[in-house]
TrEMBL record:
Top-level taxonomic group: Bacteria
Transmembrane residue ranges: none
Similarity comment: family membership: Belongs to the RecR family.
UniProt cross-references to PROSITE patterns, sorted A to Z: RECR, TOPRIM
Keywords attached to this entry: DNA damage, DNA recombination, DNA repair, Metal-binding, Zinc, Zinc-finger
Domain (Toprim): residue spans on this chain: 81-176
Protein name stated in the entry: Recombination protein RecR
One example of a Gene Ontology biological process annotation: DNA recombination
GO-annotated molecular function: DNA binding; zinc ion binding
Role description: May play a role in DNA repair. It seems to be involved in an RecBC-independent recombinational process of DNA repair. It may act with RecF and RecO.
Lineage: Bacteria, Pseudomonadati, Bacteroidota, Flavobacteriia, Flavobacteriales
Record PANTHER family: RECOMBINATION PROTEIN RECR (PTHR30446:SF0)
Zinc fingers, C4-type class: 58-73
């Protein structure tokens, strides 16, 4: 792409660094912003800057939060003996939408993926094991997507928890083909949490 303006080129370049945004889309978005009042670009820029500078991660579950302990963890009505292990905030949002789950979460921040160079130490697995050792948690529910990375991560955590007096379960498989939790419909996802199966049983079935 030949740009008549270095300023335009820079803006398009930065926009095109976002996932799913090619150079042409980036150009369209930037030109759109230029046509709008200047305040709109300021609001967008400020929202992103504030997000980066003020965002926190809950010290208990590692979910994105505006405060040190997120609303879910701070809620005395939630069952603290039940912890659902998920990849990121999108899964928390999907499960919360079902209104079927009253436990807490543990957000891993990703899945173990040797291909992408993501190892257990890059995730919040250490903190999960510490949590397990404290004795308050009775059951961890694995709710990662049923990909090879998801399976590897579940199994790794399962092994770390061996020897502790803690149940592990997994949500019913086949909740939706294509299988990212965020795409499963609420009724199916809610049911699969209620009808979860012991993790060890799921290993034998595979
Ligand atoms: Zn939390």
């Amino acid at each position: 792409m030949d740009f008549s303006s270095k300023l335009l080129e820079n803006a398009v370049y930065e926009m095109s660094q976002l996932p799913g945004i090619g150079k042409r889309t980036a150009l369209r978005l930037v030109l759109h912003l230029l046509k709008q009042p200047k305040e709109q670009t300021e609001r967008l820029s400020n929202a992103l800057l504030n997000l980066r500078s003020e965002i926190k991660f809950c010290e208990n579950c590692h979910n994105i939060s505006d405060v040190a302990v997120c609303e879910i963890c701070a809620n005395p009505k939630r069952d603290r003996s039940l912890v659902c292990v998920v990849e990121d905030i999108r899964d928390v949002m999907a499960i919360e939408n079902t209104s079927q789950y009253k436990g807490l979460y543990h957000v891993l921040g990703g899945k173990i993926s040797p291909m992408e160079g993501i190892g257990p130490q890059d995730l919040t697995i250490g903190s999960l094991v510490d949590k397990a050792r404290k004795g308050e948690v009775k059951e961890f529910i694995f709710a990662l997507s049923s990909t090879m990375e998801g399976d590897t991560t579940n199994f790794y955590i399962y092994k770390q928890l061996k020897g502790l007096d803690i149940n592990t379960s997994t949500i019913a498989r086949g909740i939706a083909v294509g299988d990212e939790l965020e795409y499963a419909d609420e009724v199916t996802l809610g049911r699969s949490i209620l009808n979860r199966i012991p993790f060890e049983g799921s290993l034998k079935a595979n």
